[in-house]
Specification:
Layout: H1 2-23, H2 34-48, E1 50-55, E2 58-59, E3 63-66, E4 71-73, H3 75-87, E5 90-95, H4 98-107, E6 112-113, E7 127-129, E8 134-143, E9 158-162, H5 166-178, E10 181-185, H6 188-196, E11 202-206, H7 207-217, E12 221-233, E13 236-238, H8 243-259, H9 261-268
Parallel strand pairs: 1-5, 1-6, 9-10, 9-11
Antiparallel strand pairs: 2-3, 3-4, 7-13, 8-11, 8-12
């Protein structure tokens, strides 16, 4: 009988010890609240996301296809790659053209675009922009042997512009004042060809881009006058979406400027 009592007492003591151990365990072992679980899942999803980013396909030296490399290269391509590495995000690039890139971002098909896109108040109503990463402006361009020397000489003539660009908008804003008509093209190389072969008498293009084309590709063009309507290029997302991308781009850009990588990228393309 005494042995039975001792055994029963031992069983009760062990049961109480197990109960106390379970009740006094670490808070880290307790089930997480729904909000905590959701936050953890959101962080994991963000870290795992591959962003879809669109760009132009013929806007050297910012983005253009390098036959030797078999890939798109340029200031924008190198800059984005360096920022993504610095900030630890991944992306998939689509070089579809400037107008197509704008449409893809607006429709939600793309998360962002980087395509030598000038930051402007009207665009800021539709897009959220990063800090400016390159300053440029438009300039008038004519074929090398042209006698055109000023905006006044465009009266009665035809001017080529690239669809949806700052150059096109600027030309449209002064067309009535200087009496010229506009013809729109989808990309810069086609626009240059139209001026060289005489289809159009002049065009408006970003100074750095046409300067590259004249120097690097030997195009029979020349620029007239001073830079017009200067502004900064920016990385863009649809307004109100992907704010983390803008934050990461800005932080990465600041780091690249601080460590010299930004200067190195520009120097690679002659800036």
């Amino acid at each position: 009988m005494k042995n039975f009592v001792r055994i029963l007492s031992l069983v009760l003591v062990l049961a109480m010890a197990v109960f106390c151990f379970a009740g006094c365990g670490s808070n880290n072992d307790a089930p997480k609240a729904d909000a905590d679980v959701a936050a953890d899942n959101g962080a994991a999803n963000a870290a795992a996301k591959t962003y879809i980013i669109y760009s132009d396909n013929a806007f050297a030296p910012f983005e253009y296809f390098d036959e030797a490399a078999g890939a798109y290269v340029g200031v924008d391509m190198d800059l984005l790659a360096a920022i993504a590495e610095d900030q630890g995000f991944t992306y998939e690039m689509h070089n579809e053209g400037f107008d197509a890139s704008m449409g893809a971002v607006q429709s939600g098909q793309a998360d962002a675009m980087i395509a030598g896109m000038t930051i402007r108040p009207d665009r800021a109503e539709v897009y959220d922009f990063s800090e400016g990463y390159f300053e440029d402006g438009q300039i008038m361009v004519v074929k090398a042997e042209s006698a055109i020397a000023s905006l006044e000489d465009l009266r009665g003539l035809s001017v080529a512009v690239k669809t949806s660009t700052a150059g096109a908008d600027y030309a449209a804003s002064i067309a009535d004042e200087y009496g010229f008509t506009l013809q729109y093209y989808e990309d810069s190389p086609t626009m240059y060809t139209a001026v060289i072969n005489g289809t159009n008498d002049a065009c408006f293009e970003d100074r750095s881009v046409v300067g590259w084309a004249i120097q690097s590709e030997g195009l029979a063009l020349k620029t007239i006058g001073e830079v017009l309507n200067p502004g900064f290029y920016g990385f863009a997302v649809k307004k109100g979406s992907n704010p983390e991308l803008i934050s990461m781009f800005n932080a990465g850009l600041a780091n690249l400027k601080a460590n010299g990588k930004y200067t190195e990228i520009l120097a690679k393309y002659g800036y």
